[in-house]
Write a structure and sequence with these properties.
Elements (H helix, E strand, L loop, with lengths): L7 H12 L4 H8 L3 H9 L6 H10 L6 H12 L14 H50 L3 H10 L6 H14 L4 H15 L6 H21 L3 H17 L11 H13 L3 H13 L5 H17 L2 H11 L9 H17 L3 H6 L1 H7 L6 H17 L3 H17 L3 H17 L3 H10 L11 H15 L5 H14 L10
Length: 489
């Protein structure tokens, strides 16, 4: 070390002071020492001890962790020594090239390590934010809608990006119960998003995420125009905030949820396109399973049952029974329903045992009723008419008592097909008479009602055929979610 070369700790402090934009005399004044003392400390005339460096850094408001960065920079800039015990020394020019190469390698290692350590730190912070958001939700969920609004508007501890995400998740869950609650939770998420700290782009991204969930909740509440407007705003805000998108929020949700709206609007081609875009963002993981489940459901409503089976089977490895029990149950049920539609009855029967276990809990009466329906269809497909008629008759009676008339009509037609296969035309006529009250139910749309009336006339005129009944069953399955679909013999 030459006389004019400061020691590493002194030089490290000088680097950090200059990087902070603080002049030497101002740093001395902040530390309460004479500028000449600081000059000696930085030059090495006086020893810069660790305590001196800590005190001086605190005085100029530089975090002590920065000292390691300063020492690293000082090590690169100060003259280095030869390796001990080396019998040869390279020329000065070679030495400079070696030092430059080592500096580039060191910088690359630093930047690579910095990116990785920051990634780990951000992941841990995101997990902590989500944990705190879960606690905040526990406080909110027991309160009324108005009380929730008051809390998130007045208390800054609720102004969290993770709470926006949590409220949106709870909104999606609420769509299976009360659509009004789903709308309220998504709108509450928007109120939080507007108050989160950060730059405008980040708040715009959060607001776009919340608006997508408002659109989803409005769809479930049958407000399709309102849902469409919500998604327009969602995409506008999401694009405006794209510069702040670092992957914290699942952007595929906008595609996924809008696909459900497009499905409700009978724009199936556009819906499938959105889902393919969402899948491209999820090569693996839980999100992929959710998107494939949605895709399979759309294909099922279109009557593309083999393609739906493929989508459900692809989704299966990504949907965890413990993390998403409802999605797991829906997946297994829809998969076996589509297998029946595709005449793969033996495969559907193999899945019945699992479904019985999945629907055994209290509060799943409707699920068990639909399972009994599925069992009846499997029995019919595998040539067990007596068991099929027993199961479907019980299901038809339950739907009739609960005034679920569309499903009652479907089961009735499936029963009629079984009776016709056995030549039991009298039972078909009795069944047709019991179906008359279905025609007055407002839940059965006009085109479906016309198809049922065609069946009724054919029974009265004794011209009903098994082919007609099967065509009507296939039509009603598709028409349930497409009120404008017409029956064609």
């Amino acid at each position: 070390m030459t006389q004019n070369t400061p020691p590493p700790l002194s030089f490290a402090f000088t680097i950090l002071r200059q990087a902070a934009g603080v002049k030497q005399k101002h740093a001395a004044r902040a530390a309460g020492i004479d500028p000449s003392v600081l000059c000696k400390l930085e030059s090495g005339a006086e020893p810069m001890t660790p305590q001196w460096s800590a005190d001086l850094l605190a005085a100029i408001e530089v975090q002590p962790e920065r000292l390691d960065v300063g020492l690293f920079c000082a090590g690169l800039l100060l003259p280095s020594r030869s390796l001990p015990g080396s019998p040869v020394e390279p020329s000065a020019a070679v030495r400079r090239r070696v030092e430059a190469a080592a500096a580039r390698a060191g910088r690359l290692a630093y930047e690579t390590s910095l990116v990785e350590y920051l990634r780990q730190a951000r992941t841990e912070q995101a997990q902590e934010d989500r944990r705190q958001a879960a606690e905040l939700w526990e406080r909110l969920k027991v309160r009324s809608c108005s009380a929730r609004i008051a809390l998130v508007e007045e208390d800054p501890k609720y102004w969290s990006w993770a709470l926006v995400e949590k409220l949106c998740t709870e909104s999606v869950r609420a769509t299976a119960g009360v659509p009004k609650v789903a709308v309220e939770l998504a709108e509450l998420a928007l109120r939080v998003a507007e108050r989160v700290s950060g730059d405008a782009a980040w708040r715009s991204l959060l607001a776009g995420y919340a608006w997508a969930h408002i659109g989803n909740a409005r769809r479930v509440a049958s407000d399709l125009p309102g849902a469409e407007e919500a998604f327009r705003l969602a995409w506008e805000l999401w694009r405006e905030g794209s510069a702040a998108d670092i992957g914290l929020l699942d952007g595929s949700r906008l595609f996924d949820l809008e696909a459900s709206l497009l499905r409700a609007q009978r724009k199936t081609a556009a819906a499938l396109e959105r889902l393919d875009q969402a899948l491209a963002m999820h090569p693996a993981g839980e999100g992929r399973g959710r998107i494939l489940l949605n895709k399979g459901t759309i294909l099922e409503k279109m009557g593309s049952y083999e393609a739906a089976v493929e989508a459900f089977q692809e989704a299966a490895p990504w949907i965890d029974r413990d993390r998403g029990p409802r999605d797991f149950c829906v997946l297994r049920f829809n998969l076996n329903v589509c297998r029946c539609h595709a005449s793969r009855f033996a495969e559907a029967e193999a899945g019945l045992t699992e479904l019985r276990a999945l629907t055994a809990c209290p509060g799943q009466e409707l699920d068990r009723l639909k399972l009994r329906w599925l069992e009846g269809r499997v029995h019919g497909g595998l040539g067990r008419p007596a068991l099929a008629i027993e199961a479907l008759s019980a299901v038809r009676g339950a739907f009739a008592r609960q005034d679920i008339h569309y499903s009652e009509a479907l089961v009735s037609l499936e029963l009629a097909g079984l009776y016709l296969e056995q030549g039991r035309t009298a039972e078909v006529k009795t069944l047709a008479q019991k179906m008359e009250r279905i025609f007055n139910d407002q839940g059965v749309h006009e085109e479906a009602r016309k198809a049922l009336e065609l069946f009724h006339r054919a029974v009265e005129q004794e011209t009903v055929t098994l082919a007609l009944v099967r065509s009507l069953v296939a039509y009603l399955y598709r028409a349930e979610h497409d009120p404008e679909l017409r029956f064609e013999e």
